[in-house]
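FORM 12-B: Structure-to-Sequence Request
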């Protein structure tokens, strides 16, 4: 009986070792699974964070690009609006170049230009409809020759030799005043809703 008991004892002991080794293997496997799960979670979080940062960066770039394009379009629209305003102003001024109501202003401009030219002989170009009215405003008409210009130009004065020229046309005045006017108009355009 002792042999049967010894055998049973050995079997029990072997079973206990197998159970202990199995329990240890299961615990090791569980730790390994937990470590792998934690590692996988860390890698997923790192990949998610990297992708999120990449997407945020791409979104920020796209947003900045959109802002720049919107600003460019706004500036282009303002420039087009200013150009339309300038063309309309030029057309309206050209239409009024031969208006007899402008003779007093043109006579003042002519007197200033002739004063600027001094004693030199001058050629005055003015709209044909206004030549006689302007000629009547010049005290010393002997040194001034009047020549009609096309009806859409304003007043132009030059010395006989062409050395000096005074452009008192509306187009020239608008061109000189345009930068200041454009700034004021742009401010008004910006204030519009």
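FORM 12-B RESPONSE
SEQUENCE OUT:
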């Amino acid at each position: 009986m002792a042999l049967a008991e010894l055998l049973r004892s050995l079997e029990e002991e072997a079973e206990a070792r197998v159970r202990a080794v199995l329990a240890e293997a299961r615990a090791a496997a569980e730790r390994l699974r937990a470590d792998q799960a934690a590692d996988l979670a860390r890698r997923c979080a790192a990949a998610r964070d990297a992708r999120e940062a990449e997407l945020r960066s791409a979104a920020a770039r796209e947003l900045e690009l959109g802002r720049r394009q919107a600003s460019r379009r706004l500036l282009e629209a303002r420039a087009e609006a200013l150009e339309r305003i300038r063309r309309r102003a030029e057309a309206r001024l050209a239409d009024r170049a031969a208006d007899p109501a402008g003779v007093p202003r043109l006579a003042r401009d002519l007197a200033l230009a002739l004063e600027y030219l001094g004693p030199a002989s001058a050629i005055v170009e003015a709209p044909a409809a206004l030549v006689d009215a302007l000629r009547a405003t010049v005290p010393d008409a002997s040194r001034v020759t009047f020549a009609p210009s096309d009806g859409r130009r304003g007043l132009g004065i030059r010395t006989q030799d062409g050395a000096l020229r005074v452009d008192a046309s509306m187009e020239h005045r608008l061109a000189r005043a345009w930068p200041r006017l454009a700034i004021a108009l742009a401010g008004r355009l910006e204030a519009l809703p």
